[in-house]
Amino acid sequence: MAARSVIALVSVAEVVAGDLADHLERRGHDVRAARQPWEAESLLSAKGIDVVVVGDSVSQAEGRDLLRRFGGEGGPDFILICRPADLVDKVLALELGAADVVESPLNVRELAARIGGLLARRGRAAGELIVLENATVDLRSAMVMHRSGAEDQLSPGQVALLKLFLASPRKVLTRDDIIAAAPAENADAFDRSIDSRIVRLRRKLDTETITTIRGAGYRFDPPTQRVD
């Protein structure tokens, strides 16, 4: 099993840090926190950190100092949170090598996505993202992220069922195909449970891409990507 990515939160506001840590941990990452810049010294010196998020309660000078000392080649990627008026400080941070600078107030889900992008560029395990009409599915963490901002967790059986459909797009899968490749989690559930499993999966994904082919089985039709 691949090692979990490690994200350090330095002086990130408590409410934001709690939400962000929960968001990241549910996606398989380890989160470590330092409330003050001086506490970050030992945390970052210990190595093994992939991404550092520095909160806007830290002075820009302190944030840039951490970036100079611990960033750079071989070091973690830095994301600095700044206030909207701090344009000069934002430019300075980017010139010093910050991977990203985001303005507060921020959207936790967006920040988590930016962190995921940095991890992917570092070659760390990234989520397997499936984009549907009204939601995005991260197969690695079994999370469904709806456009509304709500999230749902897929069960292991639902992940197996979705992967089966993804592996056979536009192909009709019979009940026997599904029972063989993605058996129900309940050992007592047989053929008659498949309809309800499909209904629950469709509902959780908020999708119409899984179609019932009467008398034959079920088919997954990938959604057409819209061009704006």
TrEMBL record:
Xref: InterPro entries: CheY-like_superfamily, OmpR/PhoB-type_DNA-bd, Sig_transdc_resp-reg_C-effctor, Sig_transdc_resp-reg_receiver, WalR-like, WH-like_DNA-bd_sf
SUPFAM superfamilies, per database record: C-terminal effector domain of the bipartite response regulators (SSF46894), CheY-like (SSF52172)
PROSITE patterns: OMPR_PHOB, RESPONSE_REGULATORY
Every OmpR/PhoB-type domain range: 127-222
Residue spans binding DNA: 127-222
Matching Pfam families: Trans_reg_C
Keywords (A to Z) from UniProt: DNA-binding, Phosphoprotein, Transcription, Transcription regulation, Two-component regulatory system
Domain of life the protein comes from: Bacteria
Residues in Response regulatory domain copies: 6-119
Protein's recorded name: Response regulator transcription factor
